[in-house]
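> forwarded from #structure-qc
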């Protein structure tokens, strides 16, 4: 294993990086020494190198095993802990949570320096908020508020009631200073919800500050629930009223989709014809949107008119599977309509949709994947496999992501199709995929088929994703 290969494995979160590094002399390149890998391990310990940190969670366990694999060299451990001084409100929040979680592991192992570093980060985050001179922005956009939320969430995971009590006291001080502003940020509300559900939550600490905190929290939460009870037009109307309101030109809300199941087949067909006949693109989009709800009313007029529309509007979609953002409002509506047309089509099982999917696949379009998966038939295996492998796999969430969505579609196909000729795709995804959540899906399917060999199972025991590790140890 060269350092280049090692960095690739670490970026993907493959346990292979740990197993080869741990077996010094067996897996390493003859020209390499363990110290040659220190810089990559340091980066893996202090930053989240994964593809999608929000979905994958922190990689603290993985980073700890990488450090252990090279024998916990004191100079590397010291450098990792010293990195705490560089963590600020400007640090990427998922790097903060990942790094803080690793410090928590080191602290629980008895390394007091890690505790000091963690407390230093927390104190800086709290002091920044206590010294604020102006209100927090809505929805927790403010860097300092986000920074404090993430570092606190990591510290709460440490099973230390005294520490939890001090955090509650700090929260109470913030409530006194900022009033309800903390709770106006949706993300912070969700954080308090998690804290409330934590097994060491409100019952673990009974100080006056903690009780005052929870009283404020409960009062503000009740107000939030009362506001949420306000009904939209679609919630107040009966299905028949909703139908008449819609065909008479009433404004269509997203909540209307929930009532599609209550309409008669004749009413659904009428709505479908309205969608095809209207020249108002915005209204056409909203009418078609009603037919996109899973396990609900299926488009009743056949796929051909939708395919014709899709061919006309698909140019407004981005190449990587996401909606384009246009300066022109008209073009933005066209993009939304193009995406909605595909969402309706992928619920239909028909040969015209399959042929359209293959047409898009030949053009190299990411939008072929879902349509093809839903209309796959025996004999398509080789062509579909070649299509999946035609997309370059790169590690950059902000760049072209075509491969990710296509491989997710392949996983869905493999799970719902017992064709053994698709097993090759599972192994391909395991080796190439940068998203550890999707890699877990591939491993899970391989395990169910009895295709998870001893080498792969040993690697999975050290994977960066916790569900993959749990599966390997069963």
């Amino acid at each position: 294993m060269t350092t280049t290969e090692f960095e690739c494995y670490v970026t993907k979160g493959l346990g292979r990086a740990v197993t080869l590094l741990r077996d010094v002399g067996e897996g390493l390149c003859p020209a390499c020494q363990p110290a040659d890998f220190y810089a990559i391990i340091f980066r893996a310990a202090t930053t989240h190198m994964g593809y999608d940190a929000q979905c994958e969670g922190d990689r603290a366990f993985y980073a700890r095993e990488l450090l252990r694999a090279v024998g916990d060299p004191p100079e590397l451990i010291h450098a990792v802990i010293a990195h705490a001084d560089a963590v600020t409100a400007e640090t990427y929040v998922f790097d903060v949570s990942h790094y803080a979680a690793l410090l928590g592991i080191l602290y629980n192992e008895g390394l007091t320096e890690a505790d000091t570093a963690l407390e230093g980060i927390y104190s800086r985050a709290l002091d920044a908020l206590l010294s604020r001179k102006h209100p927090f922005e809505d929805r927790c956009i403010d860097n300092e508020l986000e920074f404090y939320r993430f570092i606190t969430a990591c510290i709460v995971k440490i099973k230390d009631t005294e520490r939890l009590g001090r955090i509650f006291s700090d929260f109470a001080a913030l409530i006194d200073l900022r009033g309800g502003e903390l709770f106006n940020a949706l993300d912070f509300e969700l954080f308090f919800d998690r804290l409330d559900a934590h097994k060491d939550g409100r019952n673990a600490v009974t100080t006056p500050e903690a009780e005052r905190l929870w009283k404020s929290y409960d009062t503000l939460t009740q107000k939030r629930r009362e506001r949420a009870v306000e009904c939209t037009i679609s919630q107040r109307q009966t299905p028949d009223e909703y139908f008449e309101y819609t065909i008479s030109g009433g404004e269509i809300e997203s909540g209307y989709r929930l009532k599609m199941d209550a309409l008669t087949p004749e009413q659904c067909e009428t709505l479908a014809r309205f969608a095809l006949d209207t020249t108002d693109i915005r209204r056409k989009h909203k009418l078609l949107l009603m037919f996109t709800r899973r396990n609900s009313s299926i488009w009743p007029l056949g796929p051909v008119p939708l395919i014709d529309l899709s061919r006309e509007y698909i140019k407004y979609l981005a190449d990587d599977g996401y909606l384009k953002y246009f300066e022109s409002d008209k073009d933005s509506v066209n993009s939304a309509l193009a995406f909605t047309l595909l969402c309706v089509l992928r619920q239909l099982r028909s040969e015209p949709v399959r042929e359209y999917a293959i047409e898009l696949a030949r053009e190299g379009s990411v939008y072929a994947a879902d349509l093809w998966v839903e209309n796959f038939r025996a004999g398509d295996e080789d062509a579909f496999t070649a299509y999946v492998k035609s997309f370059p796999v790169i590690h950059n969430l902000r760049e072209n992501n075509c491969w990710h969505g296509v491989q997710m579609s392949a996983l869905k196909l493999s799970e719902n199709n017992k064709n053994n000729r698709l097993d090759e795709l599972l192994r391909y995804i395991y080796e190439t995929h940068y998203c550890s959540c999707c890699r877990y899906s591939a491993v899970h399917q391989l395990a169910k088929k009895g295709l998870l060999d001893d080498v792969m199972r040993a690697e999975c025991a050290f994977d960066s994703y916790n569900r993959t590790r749990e599966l390997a140890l069963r």
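QC bot note: Residues 361 and 375 are 13 Å apart (CA to CA). Residues 404-474 form one domain.
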